[in-house]
Amino acid sequence: xxxxxxxxxxxxxxxxxxxxDSGKDKWPVVGGFHQIEITSPEAVKGVDFLKxxxxxxxxxxKELQLEQAESQVxxxxxxxxxCRYIENDAKEKKRLQAKIYVDLDGKYTLTDLKLDVKEPSGxxxx
Length: 126
Prior knowledge:
Layout: H1 2-22, E1 34-36, H2 41-57, E2 61-74, E3 76-87, E4 94-102, E5 108-115
Antiparallel strand pairs: 1-2, 2-3, 3-4, 4-5
């Protein structure tokens, strides 16, 4: 029995040493935002919800195009969406960042909206 515990401890130590430097940038921070595909069902549903909210709150925003999506598991999950848009009849596209909370029952809530964002905030590690 004593030898089994020593083997388990040594195996764990070996795993820690092997992953010490090689996997730093591969794994998201536990509890943080991580990148998801913009074609994922979560991102698509989030953009659909965002379009409905913007129609009510910012009716001048047109041609919403998703560029980047991130997700964070909480009691439910948070979405962080980075989108390009055109405001009113402007020729130049701008960026917006929206945060959406989806509860365990699937109810969506817009929790943060930043218009005319210059650079994306977040790199999937927060």
